[in-house]
Write a structure and sequence with these properties.
The protein is mainly alpha-helical and 235 residues long. 64% of the residues lie in helices and 2% in strands. The chain is built from nine helices and two strands; from the N terminus they run ααααββααααα. It has helices spanning 3-6, 9-16, 20-33, 43-51, 68-93, 108-129, 136-146, 151-179, 187-214; strands at residues 57-58, 61-62. It has a two-stranded antiparallel sheet. β1 and β2 form a beta hairpin. α2 (9-16) packs across α3. The relative contact order is 0.16.
Length: 235
């Protein structure tokens, strides 16, 4: 796949073919558990996968039908398992996990953005809400581990966030696919809307960050009890 297809969910589903259901579950795991997963499609893939549990043709192109029960069970399990892996890696390797130069698939600003949400909402809310923010949902898990978020507490909120994120998008896609005539004509616009909604929080915070910098503030300023990448742990 070329770069224009990399983030297109239908391209991935076509690539997986007969194993599309397994492929979706694998991407969910990679996106939430491995740092390179931040470049993989997330919300748009889940939404499209949900639609393809109800229809099998998109713009005249045939797709392997996906199993809704398998997605509703496997999706949350992969999301939770991936996030737990990320938390474990963060706890085990600490700052070294993020100590690398910027590249096409890694930016230090992404880590800083995840830390910002961690500080702004607190660990529990951040773990849940980050599921709906691209890139942040990848880095929030190892960050939580690195900053010492209790593993049992992390697991509880990880499960809640993982189930809500995956199953809501799967079910939304499924019910639209089953109830809207010729839904295949609206998949691309629907994916575009989801992508736009997904990046709105990032754009808003980037603009806010620029404004704060203009006023001499730092978006990562936090209370003394909050975590920071300087090495302090969350208390």
């Amino acid at each position: 796949m070329d770069i224009t297809e990399w983030l297109h969910p239908t391209a991935w589903l076509q690539l997986f073919g007969t194993f599309a259901t397994i492929g979706v579950i694998a991407i969910i795991f990679a996106e939430t558990g491995l740092l390179f997963g931040c470049i993989l499609p997330g919300d748009s893939l889940l939404f499209t996968a949900g639609i393809l549990t109800a229809v099998s043709t998109v713009n005249g192109q045939e797709f392997q039908p996906l199993s809704l029960p398998a997605l509703l069970v496997g999706g949350p399990l992969a999301a939770v398992a991936g996030a737990q892996l990320g938390h474990w890696l963060g706890a085990k390797y600490g700052r070294k996990l993020f100590d690398r130069p910027d590249s096409r698939i890694f930016k230090q600003e992404w880590v800083e953005k995840a830390e910002y949400y961690f500080n702004k909402f607190g660990p529990a809310k951040a773990v849940v809400l980050a599921r709906f923010i691209p890139i942040v949902r990848t880095f929030i898990n190892p960050l939580a581990g690195m900053l010492g978020m209790d593993s049992r507490r992390f697991f509880m909120w990880n499960v809640i966030g993982g189930v809500i994120w995956t199953d809501v998008l799967f079910l939304l896609g499924h019910f639209l696919g089953a109830s809207v005539p010729d839904i295949d004509k609206y998949i691309l616009p629907g994916v575009a809307v989801i992508l736009i909604l997904s990046v709105i929080p990032i754009i808003r915070e980037v603009m806010k960050g620029r404004k704060d910098k203009g006023n001499g503030a730092n978006i990562n300023d936090s209370e003394e009890s909050r975590a920071s990448l300087s090495g302090e742990t969350y208390r």
